[in-house]
């Protein structure tokens, strides 16, 4: 054990640290509002505080906190696979921030789900009550285990920060196990979140009700993860007045462009194979065109250009559109597609919206705290 | 052998005795109601109404209008999608037929509501810690050797309780004995993989116009719950493949990098 008490402080150089900016205040205010709304939700119940009903059992929380949140948190396993499995070591600087945002994404999932469940205090039931036939059962287990894996990852960073070298060494030795477990678990639950919708093809629009929804969800989660890594790298660099990793981001963005192309090809093949009615001008179709052409093909095209890949603004736009596209896809699958079938309509209530916004705000605050207190960026790593 | 109910809608007079019987047996509270566009009451199934009779007027070939009364409740599917969906196994099908729900297991995720092709499970939205509610096929009464409250209360024998295979035979006998009277398919015989509620109707649910009100006619014969089970049966293999690929590629790529850096040094 290293001596405690005399642990040297991490070198910190974040300008304006501790200053209370209006942005920060707004985030804190949102979190406070979220806590209040959460308490109201728990006290009065779902019926009184949300606009969910028997026709729309799943709403904003499932679409955004669960489906979209997990897809955008796909950066953790994508980066781990890139670096440890495909051995592309040059991307290493992007790994740690990706892990932190992945962990926060899953934390958001768990908290969002807690408020969404009718019996939140039974959230642990799938641990001991098993239904191996249920896709949701598998999702529950994978998410539980993967969140633990990400938690251990963050914990290792904390151990480095506290200079517990023996422990860090222990975890480094078994690190491959964590990486492989993370990749398996992510592959499974990212695709299974789509497979949830395999059971209800009759309630969905033809545009999204595909037998191939599992692989489609998986691929778009890789897109979500990669674009979040780019966004987060550039935005946090601006916020902390660092230089973004412009030496590696362009080639990483090339990878994103490729995955977008693959996804586009998968989508088109799927539609063609199923013979879905593609050309029409009603609302679901317009949403579908926007998703496929505007948010998949367009960013892929953007990233084809050398100038876009090598400019921070260009990357920000391309990755931003791609990430938005993934979120939009999750809303389309869970609400647009389903809405075409129901005669009822649904719009989230204030409590639903506030809790979702406060989860995002909380995520940003924790991200900020962790990046300031843990060795996340390359220059801080004691070599 | 599993139990079933044969619902001959041509015999139903729309008296709603079954609704009342269901309410009183299951101790469900009454609710103040509003007018609906037909005579039906209540307007929707919900956590306090496990069954209701749909009223529809459809025009006959001669131009007359004729009432159709269709009782709706859980279909008690032979391969229930709800049971395939539920992550904690709160919904299960008993060998005798009823698909029953366990209050103590449910986490309130509402996936069963999403998955049920007949839109049956309902949620206690008014409660702070809500549970799922739906028709139980009076499993408690059946366990005591009694028939369901609704079938026992039907004054015209529109609801017939019995063994599923016998009732199916009876249904086809009626279709054959009265040519032209019945729509020639028994809804529930194969619908969605088969159900315990078997409907004999004088017109298809498409024609009656309730095929989007819980009586889907486009479900096919394949139970949708099995799509989830098929997916789940692949999961171990996917895990194994991804795992071994990951480990294999890790060592392969590492080795390749080592060889490359060696070559660089030697050059
Ligand atoms: S009708 Fe719905 S709730 Fe009833 S058994 Fe079938 S799937 Fe389950
Ligand atoms: S709401 Fe309850 S019964 Fe329905 S799927 Fe979820 S845990 Fe199962
Ligand atoms: S079987 Fe029992 S629970 Fe179901 S509708 Fe009839 S009376 Fe109600």
Description:
The complex is a heterodimer of chains A (383) and B (267). Chain A contains 15 helices and no strands. Chain A is mainly alpha-helical. Chain A has a domain at 200-341. By secondary structure, chain B is of the alpha+beta class. Chain B has 2 domains: 3-224, Alpha-Beta Plaits; 234-266. Chain B has 8 helices and 9 strands. Chain B has helices at residues 17-25, 81-85, 111-115, 139-143, 149-153, 164-177, 205-208, 225-266; strands spanning 3-8, 52-59, 65-72, 91-93, 99-101, 122-123, 132-133, 159-163, 197-200. In chain B, β2 (52-59) and β3 (65-72) form a beta hairpin. The N and C termini of chain B lie far apart (80 Å). The model of chain B has no long low-confidence stretch (mean pLDDT 93). The interface between A and B is large, with 60 and 58 residues. Residues 85-88, 90-91, 106-112, 132 of chain B line the site of one iron/sulfur cluster.
User: How would a textbook summarize the main sheet of chain A?
Assistant: none
Assess the beta-strand content of chain B as a share of residues: 15-25%
Structural class of chain B: alpha+beta
Residues in helix, % of chain B? 25-40%
Mean pLDDT of chain B: 93
Q: Number of DSSP strands of chain B?
A: 9
Question: Which parts of chain A are unreliable, with pLDDT below 50 for 5 consecutive residues or more?
Answer: 1-9
| Strand composition percent of chain A | under 5%
Query: Quick one: how many beta strands of chain A?
Result: 0
Net shape of chain B: elongated
How large, in whole angstroms, is the Cα Rg of chain B? 25 Å
Largest interface: A-B, 60 and 58 residues
Task: Please state the overall shape of chain A, judged from the principal axes of the Cα atoms.
Answer: globular
Q: Ranges of chain B with pLDDT <50 over ≥5 residues?
A: none
How large is the radius of gyration of chain A?
A: 21 Å
Quaternary organisation? heterodimer
User: What CATH architecture label of the largest domain in chain B applies?
Assistant: 2-Layer Sandwich
Strands side by side in the biggest sheet of chain B: 8-1-9
Measured between the Cα atoms of the first and last residue of chain A, the distance is 19 Å
